[in-house]
Amino acid sequence: MQQIDSREYFSGEFELPGDKSVTHRAVMLNSGADGVAVIENALMGEDCVSTCRCMRALGAKIDVDGTTLRVSGTPHFRRGTELNCGNSGTTIRLLTGYVAGKQIDAKLYGDESLSSRPMKRVAEPLALLGADVRTTDGHAPVYVSPKLLQGADVELKIASAQVKSAVLLAGISADGETSVTEPVKSRDHTERMLSAMGADIAIDGNRVTVRKSTLKAVDVCVPSDVSSAAYFMALGALKGETLCKNVGINPTRTGILTAFDKLGVSYSLLNRRVSGGEETADILVKKTAMRAIELTAEDIPSMIDELPLVALLCAFAEGESRITGAKELRVKESDRIATTTELIRNIGGDCEELPDGFIIRGKKKLCGGNVDSYLDHRIAMTAAVGLIASEKGGNVVRPECCAISFPDFFDKLGIKLY
Fold first, then answer.
1. Which is the catalytic residue, given 225, 305, 372, 376?
2. Which domains does the chain possess?
3. Which pTM does this prediction carry?
């Protein structure tokens, strides 16, 4: 249990870890490419370490020097490999598609939490390409057997960057043309990186098409993760002023800024530039009196990781907020609809759980209290923000799970874990 004290004022300038989504893809795709790539500012949290471990098991050579990685790829993955994906949903879902296209047999598995998360949603679209992917009652372990793949037209019922990416990574090894269409455009890091690595790829709105391609290694400077920056941006909006440096502002990832616009948060994008195909900026956020908002299914894909934090901000806003169309939160590291509702209530807020979201009645001030992280890094970090912004602070149970995506989160807050 970690004590978190409330603060009257919170300000600072923050250099934040590299983007987890970009790091995963830079490591994974370069591991199966021709040549050698240098990846700078990589996030070396537990999830991305899981990706490195799996790609080494498949035959790639990955040298690590702090946050700089040197990846020597292999065009032919090792057969008969067991791939421990740890707690990382991105690793197991993307890698299932990538391995299926390489015509090898492999077992993909993870920890207890990962084994509870759905994999049928990946196996079913891959089967349309002819892949032999077998789940364990719809979950991990997942078993892939060698099959020649044939391109197919895949239409997803739910927008998911992980499922879309799995199909695209299988599609670059399939004969013919593979297309994925989503109801709403999800984050596009995979498409951007495939394009930079020479893949035959075309994008038309919510439809992405790939053809059989040989990937060429490409150096990547990973921007800071907007999902990690969001917690410090939220503290700026609640308690003072924060500047987050070199943050990725990929349009498919900046739903937190859309939420800020609706909430009325005062922020500025400074020093805008492009790095490795990804847009970046310094983001300045100032304390703001926030108003209630409404978010629907169309808003959700671009802010799925930040929704617990957005719900918390609504608890400090004026009026009644409603977030719907977020059923996907039920199958994250925890049931984030249930755990976010509990978090807000435990620190004095008014939150009603819906099947696919929340109704939050803002109180402007929350008293604080004790919050269980349920070993979910997003819940632990959201709780820390809420307690700092509360009147009396409180405690977070099992805060060490933050290491999954943000190993030095509490250090940057000036809090020493004990």
1. 305
2. 2-17+223-412 (3.65.10.10), 20-205 (3.65.10.10)
3. 0.81
